[in-house]
Design a protein that fits this description.
With about 525 residues, the protein is mostly helical. It is about 75% helix and about 0% strand. The protein has 18 helices and two strands. A two-stranded antiparallel sheet has the order 1-2. The protein is globular, with a radius of gyration of 23 Å.
């Protein structure tokens, strides 16, 4: 295979990629991981249908609350450690290591690569929270960061700075270190594209047995439920936008129809393949998003410029206080927002990591980490500054529905309320709905590719029908959750994702240790002098 070092590689083990797979009904799947993941997913659905929704939700919320309150330090310091390690690694001599070997070349242009990693990471979240989150922090909607005084200039600075904090370097460090670990062991060690491969330096051949199966099943479930939750929430938000713009009644049927549309488009994208599907949609996402961002920025140039400076200032000044868990008086805000976000990013890390690993061959470790950390952070800073800054200004100036409500009345409509204040508000709202749908198609497409890879023993090339199966299952779970309990059931799924993120934080931290052990095998050892005489 031309590996620089055989240590911790596929050549140092008797395992062969796909050896535990079975071929049936035109599919090629890992027997244990596929069957157990599918079985547990169905069991979860049946159990939820059998129990009273209120009782099930109360129990899950109790566990989620305990996880957030008792282990907030683990989520917070886990994110801090991943960020520090990413920065050190990027600027260390190990940063010169190239994914795939010294002669490897990228499969995609840097523009397409960045577009795909950004769309898979958190593109849809920016649409949902771009207006709502900064406005919530400024107006004391369930607390303010560091107990800042709401409706003040200091509160505005912290509102914008804390929003960037949630979507900035820490978030992308969680994503980036997961993706780098997977990409390295796949392309430099020849191991299968699955989470178990990351732990080969720590566990040895045990990763091919039950321990590895457990790691992969947990990864599949975290990814599957996170994906279904996003579909449900996205369907609800898109339905709110369509109802608001076109006057159509926002009901369960509209939400279900939107999810079916997203699922159908995702299946078409899957069939078209990586280049014709995800790559095309990701590039389309970026074009629409930047046009959308540019229009709002042009309409509010002075406000946007001031908000951008304020957001960066607030972020830099408060990144250390916001990164602490001890000595905080804003515990409710900390648990409700920051700890929740860190758990959410951890839960999404497998989806992002495995997808980005597939498209990152040929990048150096330094290029990979710096691009993943800095470019999305700059884009999210600009996005939150533009939409959040304009929304806050509307509250201050008492403009539009946000100004009338002096804050948030309906989270899913906050973006559309902001857009209503413009003469072209309806046109902008239509663009927003299109952007939401396209982002979700990309998310479901990339998510089904990831889940399929994990349940296919880490194979990179598998039958298309397997990807279609997981796209359908993800959509079906989302539709079922909306049918049996509306948005509360989707929020229950969200809570389960957070609970699963607790052990996954430990897994990611151990993965960093394993990655370092692997990278060190690539370092050239000093040659022993030929003049030395054996004693």
């Amino acid at each position: 295979m031309g590996l620089k070092s055989k240590k911790y590689s596929i050549e140092s083990t008797d395992y062969q990629v796909g050896q535990d797979n079975i071929s049936k009904w035109g599919m090629d799947v890992h027997n244990t991981v596929f069957v157990v993941s599918l079985g547990l997913s169905i069991l979860f659905i049946v159990t939820l249908l059998a129990l009273p929704p209120a009782d099930a939700k109360a129990a899950i919320d109790f566990i989620k609350g305990a996880a957030l309150s008792k282990f907030d330090f683990l989520f917070m310091w886990g994110a801090n450690i991943l960020l520090v390690v990413a920065i050190i690694l990027a600027f260390s001599p190990l940063g010169k290591i190239r994914l795939g070997g010294d002669q490897a070349t990228p499969d995609y242009s840097k523009t397409s690569w960045i577009a795909m990693l950004f769309a898979a990471g958190m593109g849809i979240g920016l649409i949902f929270w771009g207006v709502a989150e900064p406005t919530a922090f400024f107006t004391n909607w369930f607390g303010t960061p560091l107990n800042a005084e709401p409706y003040t200039e200091a509160g505005r600075e912290l509102a914008l700075g804390a929003t960037v904090f949630h979507w900035g370097l820490h978030a992308w460090a969680i994503y980036g270190m997961t993706a780098l670990s997977l990409a390295y062991f796949v392309y430099n060690k020849g191991l299968p594209l699955s989470m178990r491969s990351v732990f080969y330096p720590l566990l040895g051949d045990r990763v091919w047995g039950k321990t590895g199966d457990l790691i992969d099943v947990l990864t599949v479930l975290v990814t599957l439920f996170g994906l279904a939750t996003s579909l449900g929430l996205g369907g609800a938000q898109a339905a709110s936008g369509i109802s608001h713009v076109f006057g159509i009644e926002n009901n369960l049927y509209l939400q279900q129809a939107i999810i079916v549309l997203i699922m159908g488009l995702a299946i078409v994208s899957v069939i078209r393949g990586m280049d014709g599907g995800v790559k095309f949609l990701s590039n389309l996402n970026m074009v629409i998003a930047f046009v959308f961002l540019g229009l709002i920025a042009v309409f509010n140039f002075t406000t946007v410029l001031d908000s951008l400076v304020t957001a960066v200032t607030g972020y830099v000044k408060n990144i250390l206080p916001l990164s602490q868990t001890s000595g905080r008086d804003d515990t409710a805000w900390l648990h409700g927002w920051t700890v929740f976000y860190w758990a959410w990013w951890v839960a999404y890390a497998p989806l992002f990591g495995m997808f980005v690993a597939r498209i990152s061959k040929g990048r150096t470790v330094r290029e990979f980490l710096l691009c993943v950390l800095l470019i999305p952070t700059l884009v999210t800073t600009a996005w939150m500054s533009v939409f959040g800054g304009v929304a806050i200004q509307q509250v201050i100036d008492k403009v539009g529905q946000l100004g009338l409500d002096q804050g948030i009345a309906d989270v899913s409509l906050s973006l559309f309320y902001m857009l209503d204040a413009y003469p072209l508000g309806n046109v902008l709202s239509v663009i927003a709905v299109v952007l939401i749908v396209v982002f979700f198609v990309t998310t479901l497409d990339s998510g089904s590719i990831v889940i399929d890879g994990m349940t296919a023993g880490g194979k990179l090339e598998v039958p298309i029908k397997q990807k279609v199966v997981w796209a359908v299952i993800s959509g079906a779970i989302a539709m079922l959750m909306l049918w049996i309990g509306g948005t509360e059931s989707v929020q229950t799924l969200q809570s389960i994702t957070i609970i699963a993120a607790l052990p996954f934080t430990i897994i990611l931290l151990l993965g960093c240790v394993s990655l370092m052990k692997g990278l060190m095998t690539e370092v050239d050892k000093p040659q022993v002098s030929t003049n030395q005489v054996n004693e």
